[in-house]
# Entry
Amino acid sequence: MTPFVFSTPVRFADVDHAGIVYYPRFFHYFHLAFEELFRVRLGARAYVELLDRDRIGFPAVRAEADYQAPLAFGDTAEIELTVERLGRTSITFHYRVWRAAEPGRDRVKSADGKVVCAVVDLEAFKSLPVPERIRDLLQDLVEPAIAAQS
# Structure
């Protein structure tokens, strides 16, 4: 299993007065990686079409993060996305955020987070089974220990 990786520069708007990424911004980074996964694998409008045309949504029902090292303005954040659990009606996304290596600086893990998303029919706002095309999209990202339990 190789994670999906999305890189983004740390912007001035991401940092607080201490000059480091304000902790809730990590959840924004998680969601950027989530959207980018759909864009890269299914096309530029795939996620929008799931929401608007197919009326399938992925609201977060649980979110958590642990922080190991700060990110600062000008750093590059590398967000690794894997799937910890691909359930019947929910998906647990696992995110690892790294400060990218650059000359004279090692790559350092900054945060580790998980977001559980329910899969819902946006018209009725009721849970639905994970669609096959979404299972297919995510299958190679399922973490091995979980895949063995399926």
About this structure: The first helix runs from residue 25 to 42. The chain has four helices and eight strands. Residues 26 and 129 are 28 Å apart (CA to CA). The radius of gyration is 16 Å.
